[in-house]
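Data deposition worksheet. Section B asks for the primary sequence of the deposited chain exactly as it was used as input, without tags or linkers unless they were present during the calculation. Section C holds the resulting structure in token form. Section D is free text for depositor observations; keep each observation to a single sentence. Incomplete worksheets are returned to the depositor.
Section A, Depositor: J.P.
Section B:
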Amino acid sequence: MNICVFCGSGVGNNTIYADAARELGELLAFEGHTLVYGGGNIGLMGIVADAVLEKKGHVIGIIPDFLMKKEVGHTGLTQLEIVSSMHERKRRMADLADAFLVLPGGWGTLDETAEILTWKQLGLIQKPIAFLNVDGFYDSLLIQMNSMVRTGFLKDTNMEFVRVAETPEQVLSLLRP
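Section C:
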């Protein structure tokens, strides 16, 4: 499968996030999956990509030109596509992906995740989405999502496609058909 990973351009303040990203990358390569991601060489993005590459796996990065010019693009990937905008980046990653996997991250990760969840809700995509909830990172967001259901702003059927696991091995099993 082509698995699109949304994750941080930072590493966080606990090594557990980097360790999970590295383990995930190694598992992706071991299982023969292709990593599709934002094309960066920094943060959890760079760690996942490097782990896949070190294990001789395939990595497709999609990066906007302005970020490439800031020298954060990973030039050692199997394939690096430079696009014109963040919107084009998200669309291209979605087109290439067979599944989506969300690791810890900041605003960019949240933006990508919200958009893909919305596309799933609207029926624009039919691909699985899973969260790697490292050390409870997404607990608060999951509580908020359930609050949206409880208060009538989100149908409970929409929560049925939100898959959550605590380890890289578990989360990959959630994405298998």
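Section D:
The radius of gyration is 15 Å.
Residues 35 and 59 are 5 Å apart (CA to CA).
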